[in-house]
Amino acid sequence: MPCRDRYGYALTTSDEAALAYSQGLLDVLRLRDGALSSFGAAIVLDPTFALGHAALALLGHEMCAPVDVAARLQQARLHARRATERERSHVHAIEAHIGGNPRPLIDHLAAFPRDALLLSTAVPTIAFAGATEVPEEAWAIVERAAPAYGDDWWFAGLLAFVRQEQRRFDDAMSLSCASLAVEPGAGHSAHARAHAHYETGDHEAGLAWMSSWVLGDGAEIDSLSHFSWHAALHELSLGDLEAVRRRYETQLQPGRALGCRALVDSGSLLFRWALTPGAHDVPDIAEVVRVTGRETMIRPATPFLAMHTAVTHLATGNAGALDELRSWAAGHVHPTMATVVSPLAEALGLMARDENSAAADRLAVLAPSIRRLGGSDAQREIIEEARIAALLRADRWDEARVLLDARLDRRRSPRDELWRAQALARI
Predict the structure, then answer these.
(1) pLDDT for the residue numbered 129
(2) What torsion do the CA atoms of 143, 148, 152, 155 make, to the nearest 10 degrees?
(3) What is the pLDDT of residues 358-376, one digit of tens each?
(4) CB neighbours (10 Å) of residue 48?
(5) How far is Cα 252 from Cα 261, in angstroms, rounded to an integer?
(6) 151: Cβ–Cβ under 8 A, 6 or more apart, which residues?
(7) Residue 397 — very low, low, confident or very high, per pLDDT cuts 50/70/90?
């Protein structure tokens, strides 16, 4: 009998390596610490195990894990020759995805929907940036896979995330709570619930639940800083800046984050905190830059990371770095890098030079394309906040108020109400 993963697919490897790989897969699905070491153990136990090499390459690319991505891909290609059709397709899909071509991954999932690692990769959630530029395409991939999973607790959490992106918040809450009842530490399910609370302006309840979950059932989560970021986002929305400070100092210091999470969580929070009316003594974002590392700050692996890199360069006032990012992205083979990241870097470069009116105009033109950068609505709205800041700095108070009105129509936010009041006072 061949070895099989937790969803029934054959693994061309030894029993011991298959066990280590399956543990790594479970760690990814639960968002628990250990995936990197488990996948690493799998290829130590069987250096010819193609999927072990491919999984490490994927974590290196997506999560800035300390992996030689090129070497792992080379080994995955080499050993996939002796593997099953599904495994060969899996390796090809990961290699193409890392190279900026999502089509093989999407086609692979149509044929092998229970390949949970790649299904997770395809959807921009907490673990991965996603494989498509249009959210509706990612939603369709998940919907098509639903019959293959039944009432699986992990898939319920993934579907819950899709439902909140579709603004079906009651469905998202029901699915996430059902999943958490089976697996109380289910990271994807907790993540979907966090978004449902935030997007409905349910800040007090969301904050209370998240604050207890990160110290209880979610305490072993690998991406714990992101859940702390969610709690801090509630505190920021409520205008409780001292609570934001305590959260940052105890849970979101950049040195605590894994890989790129310092940039995505700590860095984005500092940027948004600094824009908030009444903010003072906001910690220096320079430590985020140091922890993230030079390579990601000048050549981010994905458009999603590039968005955060650009915002961080703006926060440090580094117009030169934004110029370099603009030029590098303009020549990138990935179309989103060239058509969204490059002009975004240019717009934020104008802000860094205090050319705020021009920056606001450029950001307005880009607004419909920002969703192509990946991530969630809550993460991408950092660009909307930069645009509001540019309008306010350019004394275009009425236009800033219109944007803030639209945000307040979406959900309650005392922070945005204060921002709006300041704009109204100047009209």
Answers:
(1) 65
(2) -30
(3) 999 999 999 999 999 988 8
(4) 17
(5) 10
(6) none
(7) very high
The single residue listed with the structure tokens 């990138």 is: 332
Fold of the CATH domain 150-217: 1.25.40
How far is Cα 363 from Cα 346, in angstroms, rounded to an integer? 10
Report how far residue 118's alpha carbon sits from residue 54's, in angstroms, rounded to the nearest whole number.
Answer: 11
Taking the C-alpha atoms of residue 316 and residue 67, their distance in angstroms, rounded to an integer, is 28
Residues 6+ apart with CB under 8 A from 63: 127, 258, 259, 260
Q: Under a CB-based contact definition with an 8 Å cutoff, are residues 365 and 387 in contact?
A: no
152-187 burial, b if ≥16 CB within 10 A, otherwise e?
bbbbbbbbbbbbbbeeebebbbebbeebbeebebbb
Q: Round the average pLDDT of the chain to a whole number and report it.
A: 93
Task: Give yes or no for a contact between 268 and 309, defined as CB atoms under 8 angstroms apart.
Answer: no
In this structure, of 122-126, 297-301, 318-322, the range with the lowest mean pLDDT score is 122-126
Model pLDDT for residues 27-83, shown as the tens digit of each residue:
999 888 788 999 999 999 999 999 999 999 999 988 878 899 999 999 999 999 999
CA distances in angstroms from 62 to 39, 47, 158, listed in the order given: 15, 22, 18
CA end-to-end span of the chain: 74
The answer to whether 375 and 304 are in contact (CB under 8 A) is yes
* CATH entry 1.10.4030 includes domain 15-128: no
Three-state secondary-structure class, residue 255: helix
Please tell me whether residue 4 adopts helix, strand or coil conformation.
Answer: strand
| CA-to-CA separations, 355 to 28, 237, 307, 360, 404, in angstroms, rounded | 43, 28, 20, 9, 21
- In which band, very low, low, confident or very high, does the pLDDT at 245 lie, cut at 50, 70 and 90? very high
